[in-house]
Amino acid sequence: MRTGRFLLKRLVYIIFVFFIISILMFAIYKAMPGDPVKMMMQGNIKPEVYQQQYDNMREMLGLDKPIPVQYVKWITNMLRGDFGYSTEYRRPVKDVIGVPMRNTVLLNIFSMILVFMISIPLGITTAVKKNSILDKVVQVVTIVGYSIPSFVIALLAIYVFAIRIPLFPISGVRTAGFTGTDFEMFVDMAKHMALPVLVMSVGGIGSITRYVRASMIEALRMDYIRTARSKGLREKVVIYVHAFRNALIPVVTVTTWWLIGLFGGSVVIETIFVWDGLGKMMISGLNQRDFSVVLAMQMFYVILSLAGNVLMDIAYTLVDPRVKLEN
Amino acid sequence: MKKNKKSTMAKATQRMLVGGMMSEEQEAVLTPIQMVFFSFIKDKIAMVGVFCFLFIFACCMILPIFYPIDVYYQDVTQSNVSPGFGMLKVPKALSSDAGQLSLGSTFSVGIDNEGHVYEWGNFPTDKLKKLPKDMGKLTQVSAGLDHILAINENDEVVTWGNDRMGLEAIPVELRMGEKPVKVYAGYQMSLALTDKGRLYSWGNSYIVDIRFPDGVQGHITSFDANNDIVIALTDSKEVVPLTKKATSYAKIPDGVAGHAVDMAMSDESVAAVTEDGRVYAWGNNIKKTCDVPEEIQGHVKAIEGGRYHYTVLLDDGSVVSWGDSTFGQDQVPSIQEPVKKISAGYYGNYAIGESNTVYSWGLDGYVMGTDDLGRDVFRRLLKGGRMTMTVGAIAVIISTIIGVVVGGVSGYKGGKVDNIMMRLTEIVSSLPFLPFAIILSAIIGNSITETQRIIMIMVILGFLSWPGIARLVRGSVLAEREQEFVTAAKALGVKEWGIIFRHILPNVITVIIVNATLDFATCMLTESSLSFIGFGVTEPNATWGNMLNSARNATVIEKYWWRWVFPSIVLAISTISINCIGDGLRDAVDPKSKER
Asked: I want to staple B466 with a disulfide (CB 3.0 to 4.6 A). Which of B158, B399, B429, B457 is the partner?
């Protein structure tokens, strides 16, 4: 029951943080260059009626109200999913962000899976075989992996896997004009996804392997491991059940932060690979001065980051029942 | 630390650090900082990191003095030159029997005294290597941006290299009747002067528009051209710009008209030699091309011009150059014999001595090639490194100061202050970093100068990356404030700020240093990412990130590899070494973690 109360407390707190950040967002929204009233007013308007029309429009948009009222209106619209009108696409923002959102989530989920599939076994193995040659090699490779900026890896990957050995397409989500069965469509998309996923995973593999290794070594030194071994448990059980479960706690923290960073960082990757995702949309929105889109993207990232925080709390209580979670 | 375990290197360093005061027999009492230092210098990987980083740092800070670059400088004639040297490396057979030489954009062409033709340097197009077959012996050659023009022994004009833009269409007059006496290959343009004093041009007519004032065509004795204009020298010894537009070239100084015997052009100016051996230069005085050295006045026989420099031959057979010194164009080597002929073009010079030996000075090549705007990648890399490191360092300083203050105060004070500050920390750390930085940079950076923009990037990075350090400092302070020395300080009546900053802070300084190091790598990476997608430091200022910005398409990645490989390597090595240093420091601070 304590856990439940804790989670509830966290949730309330997260909502509080959300509102603080939303005020910040609103400030940004207000600071955006360009007069929304002027943008809405189209066509030739006679100078005599201009001021009249301008005032009407201002009233219609609610811009004549005091700032707090405007904020309340804005945040209710945002929460209802009404993100405004995209000047670039000439459609409401919520209609245009569906496909990019799906693409971004796909990209991130695949790289997440790849990272976990590689880094967790690798981290455990290197921790168990500490100071072996494999361990030393992995140590060096991982530090290189997480130090190199993703766009450098991207350029290298394009050079090797798209130009020297033309295995994968350089950009896009799917081949233009490609039609086929669902399976063929999937293969086509997977091919396009290969390079971005690879590039996004490198940094994650580097850092998460190191964290898994470090916390596994810590866990393997504990007394309960010695107890488990002296009971005659199989080494596999000792490692995967007794040690790994306890090693997970610090890993969970790092993973959550990494995940949040992953979504944010995919802005760069999406731009390089012309992946039609949220990041690319945000960049093109900024370049086209389509601020409603930009703000919607920003809201998405904020919510994602806060959700990450909640997830982290839940994951904590799941992997470690000892976590009392006061405060 | 057991004495017998100390390595000799540690001993040596210790002696250096502590001085000769300490004898070998005494067991050293080490402060925590010294302990950290000694175990740090034993860490091989970290030391390699330190050396790599210091090397790159030193290069970026010192080398720009020797390899200056004007960030606004660009030159299309030098675009996408591959790395390497040898632009001025005259072939052996030619270098002792040179007849006439001419400098093109990144290559040169020359003929020996028998009329054989030689080409060397970095060819912008492979067509330059395909010499026309039956052209016979050549008497004059001229190299341009990417084509060559020549006269052969039968007084025919030959051209090879770039054949588009109408460059292959030699005017019909030159083939019948009139004999060419001087040819000039320029920027997508060819010019030829005939024995009848008539000047013909062909090629891309959009770049240079030639209009002959009345009574000039038919009386031309010599000419020179740059990318804007052609200027002719007439038989009445006048200098005439062949244009109808008003330009600064038209402001011909007194003393030139009616007396000019030779003339040359640089990119923005004209220089003429008069009968009495004086040089007059006018036009836009860019890179000091119009500042003629006083000591040569009255002795000049001939003049040649490059992009931003002039070279003159004096009556005693010596050579003087002035103007731009970026590539050493003005550094004439010591020539032991009298010089009989000079030629200059673009960024280089050749002089042929009495014994037909060739001497050369100027731009020989680019270590790391050039980018699409003709800027030297190596020099921009140095400049960019300086910028990237400065931005990273200042951002880290900002974030460390904020982090230490927030963490220190909230850890020491506890209670409500702690609660509010930690909530603030959490809010800042929940902001999605990269998207937020991008949007801030786009909104604030809308209407500010480049310098303000750089400062803005530093501030954004600094203000978004302090929460990590604040948490760590808070944790350490929480642990330290229960120690006896704090109680003692309190009992002595030391003020709160004094306790925090004089008594507690020195004990947590190691944590701060380690994190600042690691943050430095992160800030450099973030700055690079921002600049890479165009929301950080923007052109013309160089950073490692925005140098890669232009390398974002497949053509560049494939063909102009030097434009992305070198910045990538340097950026990668720097961040890897900083991370190695950070890891080494962390191990040194926390000996327990070394066992991992």
From this structure: B399
